[in-house]
Each structure stands twice: as C-alpha cells, then as structure tokens.
Write a structure and sequence with these properties.
Elements: H1 14-25, H2 30-39, H3 44-50, H4 55-62, E1 87-89, E2 94-102, E3 105-110, H5 115-125, E4 130-131, E5 134-135, E6 142-143, E7 151-154, H6 161-174, E8 185-189, E9 195-198, H7 209-213, E10 219-228, E11 232-233, E12 236-238, E13 243-245, E14 252-256, E15 268-270, E16 273-275, E17 278-286
Antiparallel strand pairs: 1-2, 2-3, 3-14, 4-7, 5-6, 7-8, 8-17, 9-15, 10-14, 10-17, 11-16, 12-13, 12-15
C-alpha cells in the first residue's frame, strides 16, 4: 500500500510509480488502484493525473468530471520524466527535476541553463531593455500596467546561435515544437520591482482575446528561467497552492494550463525584489504555430 501522504505534498515520487507498476502486474484493476491512492491521501486530481485517467474513467471511478475538460482534450507540452534518476532529456544536456506537482502540472528544473548562457543572455538583452508591457485585454495590444514594474525585451526567433540552442533545448525538454512558442523574453527586476499575481492564458471573456488568438491560438504553458538571482526577495509565487519557487541561477519552473480557467490553479506572480537584481527569461507556449 502507498504510504500515507499529506495533501500539501503532491510530488510524484519514483516509489509511487514503482508501486503502480507492481500492482498493475499483480492484476489489480485501475479502479482499485485509483481508490487506493485516494485512500492513501492523494487528491482526486493528483491520483487521476498519475494514472493518466481518461475523463470517462475519472467520472466512472470518482464521479467527478475534470474541471478543465470544457473542450476536447488536446496534446499538451509535457516533459518525459525519467523516474529512476529524475531527469529529462534536453537534447544537448540532461536536466534534473527538483520537484513535480500535478495540481497544477508544475515542474521545477535544476541547471536548465549554464552560467555562461545566463551571462550571455543578460549581456545581449541589457542595451535593449525598456519598461515591461502587459497584454491589453480590451484591444489585444500591449500597455504599461502598474502591476508589472520590470524592464524587458524580446529576442527575435532564432536571432543568434545562442537563442537557437536554447529554443531547441526547450522544445526537446517540453516535447513541444519550437514553432509553437512565443519569442524569448528577458526581464530585469531591480529592487522593489514585482509582478502581481496573474494568469498567462488569454481570458476568453475579454474583447482583445480574439486578436491575440490569431497569432498561434491559446497559450498552454509557461517556462520561467532564472538568469540572475537577487540577494533577497523575488520568488515566483503560486498563491492557489501556497508555493514559492526561489529564483536560483540556471534553474527554471514550468507549468501548463489545459484550459483558460482559474481551475488550472496557475495563478502566479513575482514577489518584490528586496536587494540585488533578478533577471529571468520567459517562454510562453501556444497551441499552434506562433506568427
């Protein structure tokens, strides 16, 4: 039987994967395994994700329809985890997984970027920085907003060999075509700068969303890479799940959202930098080719 877990700890461990494989080989039904996970303290959504239940199975086993199943299910960006050593293939390097959560689908990576790559991105971006903009939900354009007080810039797609290397690595890591990603954005957060909690998907209820979706469909996932860590402050926070990810140089946090709904639990923000500077690179993934 799976060891009793606290609901605040939804990480998928190798032991759970081994247990599932052993119980399946022993002939136990998927319904029985699902009920065992629930009885051991796993939340319904977490247990369903671990077992890759279909919507029909989830409804049959638990009587619950997944909250994000408001449109036909589609393939999503999803790293292929190698559980025996908790690593993911990035093509030109293997990247270690520090934590994996399933509600929301969130992974923290260690060493996605090297020190040299972090320095090169900062150096190339620095002379091109300007006040960061946010999406104007009424028009589909961009605007300066008080919730976001960083400075930023965008690299062109495949602008130089470094960008090509990083975009190729991300595509392999997340199993998502490089063509389905927005241009890499670099952000600088000086002392006091922050980004209040928000969602990255485009709200279907807003007038400007129609225009935004023309460039590649809905956003489905976000990858935040830390280029320089501040002396203090600047954590990436997820208020709905009471999680704070420390901005460690070279590390990254990935999270996906299968539908543009608050039920994805992907509300997130950047806490104010207290001392020093925080630099990050952000990659947003779209449903289809970004133009």
């Amino acid at each position: 039987m799976v060891k009793k877990r606290q609901l605040s700890d939804p990480a998928i461990t190798p032991a759970v994967q081994i247990w599932l494989a052993e119980q399946t080989s022993a002939g136990h039904s998927r319904a029985t395994l699902f009920k065992s996970l629930r009885a051991s303290g796993w939340q319904s959504a977490q247990a369903a994700h671990i077992m890759s239940l279909t919507a029909d199975e989830r409804q049959l086993f638990d009587g619950v329809v997944q909250p994000c199943q408001t449109q036909p299910s589609t393939r999503m960006p999803q790293p292929k985890l190698i559980f025996h050593d908790v690593q993911v293939d990035g093509g030109d390097k293997w990247v270690r997984v520090l934590q994996h959560r399933t509600a929301p689908d969130l992974i923290e990576f260690e060493g996605l970027l090297s020190d040299a790559e972090c320095d090169a991105l900062i150096q190339a971006a620095q002379p091109r920085l300007s006040r960061s903009l946010t999406v104007d939900v009424q028009t589909g354009g961009h605007e300066i907003h008080p919730d976001r007080s960083s400075q930023g810039m965008f690299f062109e797609c495949a602008e130089n060999p470094l960008i090509v290397t990083i975009e190729t690595r991300i595509a392999r890591l997340l199993q998502w075509p490089a063509t389905h990603g927005e241009n890499l954005q670099i952000l600088r957060y000086p002392p006091g700068a922050q980004y209040l909690p928000h969602y990255d998907y485009f709200d279907p209820a807003q007038a400007g969303t129609v225009e935004l979706l023309k460039r590649g469909g809905q956003r489905v996932a976000t990858l935040i890479m830390y280029l320089r860590e501040p002396d203090s402050g600047g954590a990436t926070i997820f208020p709905d799940i009471d999680l704070a990810v420390s901005p460690k140089r070279g590390n990254a946090v990935f999270f996906s959202y299968a539908a543009p709904e608050a039920s994805t639990l992907t509300l997130h923000g950047g806490e104010p930098v207290t001392t020093g500077e925080k630099w990050i690179a952000t990659k947003w993934l779209r449903q289809s080719v970004f133009e």
